Model the fold of this input.
Amino acid sequence: MLVGRLGDGHRPSRLELLRTLTVGVGQQWKAIARLQAVMSLLEGYSNLVMNEVGRRELPHFALLEGAYRRRQQERTPLERAFLRLTGLEMKMRQYVLGERFCREVRDAGGRELLSRV
Done:
């Protein structure tokens, strides 16, 4: 192991350092991608259900939904920059994509197919 050899006066090459620092990185990226996919699915499903229940149970849901959509579209440049810099813009996009995926699965095969996903 490289760390153990540093105490012996060993001076690692750049290549050796790079290899040591990137061990497992590929697997980590794959794991992160899988985790993001699962999160997108779960968040999308929860949005889909929340919106369906809201439309069914809340008499003025359309007004609430419209206000929410308008607020999203009226963000100031500073708000948009903040969302982009903090990664929140991508996170919100994950919800949208997940909900779209869940809706398309449901529309193609019903609730039963969506439940199996």
